[in-house]
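Why show two proteins at once? Because comparison is the fastest way to build intuition. When a single record is shown, students tend to memorize it. When two are placed side by side, the eye starts asking what differs. So, the first record is below.
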Amino acid sequence: MNTEFESNPLIDRLPEHLKQFIKPQDYADYTPINQAVWRYVMRKNVDYLGKVAHDSYLDGLKKTGLEIDSIPNMYGMNRILKEIGWAAVAVDGFIPPSAFMEFQAYNVLVIASDIRQLEHIEYTPAPDIIHEGAGHAPIIANPEYAEYLRRFGEIGCKAISSARDYELYEAIRLLSILKEAEDTPEADIKKAEEQVDFLQNNMGELSEMSKIRNLHWWTVEYGLIGTIEDPKIYGAGLLSSIGESAWCMTDNVKKIPYDLSAADQSFDITKPQPQLYVTPDFAHLSLVLEQFANKMALRTGGLSGIQKLINSKALGSIELSTGLQISGVFTNVIEHEGAPVYIQTTGKTALAYREKELVGHGTESHADGFGSPIGKLKGINLAIEDMSPRDLQAYDIYEGKQITLEFEGDIKITGEIVTGTRNLQGKIVLIKFKNCTVTHGEKTLFQPEWGIYDMAVGKEVISAFSGPADVHSFDMISHVPSSKTIKQKKSAAREELENLYKNVRHIRENKPAEITLKEAFGAVTSNHNNDWLLCVEIAELTHQNNDHEFTDKVISYLEDVKLRRPEVAKLITNGLDLIFDKVSA
């Protein structure tokens, strides 16, 4: 894995499991056509979005160091982003939603460094540097929105997924790659679309991650701000799509006041959105986010939180009322009267307190799982964690004592107490036993020959969340995507066209060029008659040079292209309107 990239303090403090997604941005990989695509989209965006985007957009373009004429070097952007407390890193296409959100929690903007093909200039299903750089980056210059984004990441990365969520992520990633790649057989795209469609329509009960992804989609990606009658754009998916940014402002798209119900509104990435949500201001986004977080297992804990972790079949954590945190793959919970009375993990498990692993309680000590009763002792109103030293002695919960502890729900522990571990407030969080037997009714849960038994102390589960309490407890550097982005094919014809774009760019920048504009126009019309963008650039330069005869010739040719290729007619018109200062959407 190549991890060479220019860093800064914000990137340096990222945990290793996030750094595994970072890749170098090889600026030399951007071709002259790529640069022309960036320039076309940005010129169109600044012209049109200046009228319909939130005021922060144009200000943010300046503050984040984004240029209209050139694809940004994101590690150059970092020097400017640092001033507003953010950083940027390059990644390869879609990364898992939880990782994407965790980057946000560290104030790091994730940017897919590839750029869309000319054929997908209006919209690409794959994340690219136009979407991430020109969409997300400018708006984070607004402090209130930036804090919403950071807080969203902080909460979102703790959302518990279902086993099917990751299937959907992989399916969407594959579909986006196939659609963006050139010459992908239609059968392959259709098959990938059908798989995404099937998963989207068969997710079952939406997981926390699915719901918070919905909130992310309807705000960060496709959000509108202002009033229903006069909304402005702030969502990156709209800001980076010259097609959808115009479409969303029409009456064809229903506008709905943004509230918590958006969490239950799923989306389909393969189709235009039939409705969008409008927030009155950025502060309202944070209000809805906190309303959602209040319903998450992160804040509610309890039996339902543990069951969500079991259903996820993934690494997660619970926190007990003493502050003890148990991290692992939860596989079983025994309940009594609607409350958990025993929890069980399988495989590597770690214990922590305040996100820091307890000494002697890492995955090596609990390599085969961890089980413990939770709750109160039967017939005793006072929980162990609330007992004073005198209470503990009175109930024989004391070092060296042979004791039987009977918990509510028919959980019984018999053994000799070795020692106890206390938290900073003096509450016991763990009790260590030897010669220990743990039973639930007639079923044995632990027996003496298995070794030392560590019993967690806590009368209730106050939190349940995705991932480990201490990120250093587990080896999480395991990202192996099922698909990789496909680079554009190279051919002699493509190389010739790229060279024509390069020369026209040099002419515009007053750099030495190998050919004249007329030679470039002759070559592109003779050998590349499906191309349209280079002729738009040539028309711009001839117009600037007041060469009216040549300009008319180029425009006449472009009119022929519009007839031959009606699918690009609007793009050509929009490009020419920019040159001649006309208004178009």
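Second record. Ask yourself what differs from the first in the token line.
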Amino acid sequence: MSVTVDGDKSGSVPNRVRRIVRGPRPEKVPALVGTACTLIGLIDIAAGILPRFRVSKMHAAAEVLPGTLGPLSAALSLSAGVLLLLLAHGLKRNKRRAWRAAVVLLPLGAAAQLTWRHSVTGAVLSLALVTLLAVHRDQFAALPDPRSRWRALANFILMGAGSLALGLAIVSAHPRRVIGSPSLTDRLEHVLYGLFGIEGPVDYAGNTGWTVGYSLGALGMLTALTTIYLAFRPEHPAARLTEDDETRLRALLDKHGARDSLGHFALRRDKGVVFSPSGKAAVCYRVVSGVMLASGDPIGDVEAWPGAIERFMDEAKAHSWTPAVMGCSETGGQVWTRETGLDALELGDEAVVDVADFSLSGRAMRNVRQMVKRIERNGYTTKVRRVSDLGEAELERVRRAAEDWRGTDTERGFSMALGRIGGPGDGEAVIATAHKEDDDTAGSSPYGDLKAIIHFVPWGTDGMSLELMRRDRSADPGMNELLIVAALQQSPRLGIERVSLNFAMFRAALARGEKIGAGPVLRIWRGLLVFLSRWFQIESLYKFNAKFQPRWEPRFVVYRKSGDLPRIGFAAMQAEGFVNLSLPRPFTRRKPTPTPRPCAHIVPSQAEHEVRAA
């Protein structure tokens, strides 16, 4: 992408931008080839399993790949079908290795057509597809995705389960040829033996036993070979923030960190980063399920954003990843859509409290005021300090409490969570703690009188953004309100003028849907959000943030096309920790799930998620 910027140097958005977009675009040939491989793979699997299918009207279509008559040809058909199904998705995503595998597989299929079935038509069609792949080979240049050897175990489990299901279908597809009446247990035993190339307890008349045996052996071989390949292929780990990357990002945040409340979260060490050619801007991201997911606005000078965005889109194109941005501001959304041709959709609103305007007085703050007064009467006190002001022993106690009070097995958060407390270079972060010195359990608790923690990260030099909220389950309800009020009241002493309480998804829909005169569509949409709040705390988080009378700043999701939104949403849920598809770590002790308490906090994309709404 070529970008020319004309405008002043004041840090505002450039007035005139001339661009040529080279971002990832849907290619017709890879999509068609991938779809064809899927359909042909299903036909070949059916031809390898069902005897009648091999002589049906679909027989001519099934001839596109390896033959379907005789024991060996049935096994070849089944193997080719399974391999094509595995390759189809990679071909749709322009993957180079999927292209190479298809180019090798299809000539083998053509040879099998001529050798076993003497089918010139099938061989010609296979070679025609190879020719199509060769002509358009430049469209299949995407690099591999981040991966590890855990994929080998996942492949063994999934392929093993699929082989068992297909094997049971193969064993049961010849009822007239079966000798006797084998039970389901006998058939499963026959499948298990057959996957290892051993004859099982089920007997067939004629050559059917050979056909079943070859097919089961082919499935077992595919499971073994694909698992071995995944176990021994080179790893491509996900991008991680290096020390040099972090140093450069901190320098950008020192100059431009006041622009975006999510800027400091770019320092998560499980994110990758791409810098603009000038080094004056950067975009941080994580790749999840083929989605290249950025969060917040680019870091750095606005005039250098186009260069960082260009690098981001080039990286997405090189790997055929789906580009997406979660939670960018209105300015960020304008730049992203203008520079890339992507679309933007309002996702929700960020709650920002101006410290100078905050007060507990007035009818609107009555509930918060009464709750804070009640907790203070119960003997709770608060402390609000910079992380650099805490001693090492107390900081370690806070870290241990935050870890032990977490309500989930895995740390949640991506776009609005830092994932650490008191790390090197994070001394300007703010910690608010609640204590109860006269508590009977204070002497026996490993955390002393500590009862709750709230952690804020810097937002420029005069702001802070809420990152984490944790509390002892034995503490009184209302700890979060108590600590947020304490932090807001102590902010002037720390030089803080604005505090971000982070994000409320679909806030506008919830607010408008409950008003008089709301239309039926809006009411239905609000009802759906309320229903989903049982699992994702959408409504409760909005109401919790609204207690502090913030101003609402819209946040957007940027995406390529509407069809990508479900995939982007699923990837975001994985990144935030709501969906965990990774294999469990061995010998990891699972923490008991705590009992939900009647308290809410902030956005579900933050590190703190254990506080549930009643």
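One difference worth noting in the second protein: The chain has a mean pLDDT of 78.
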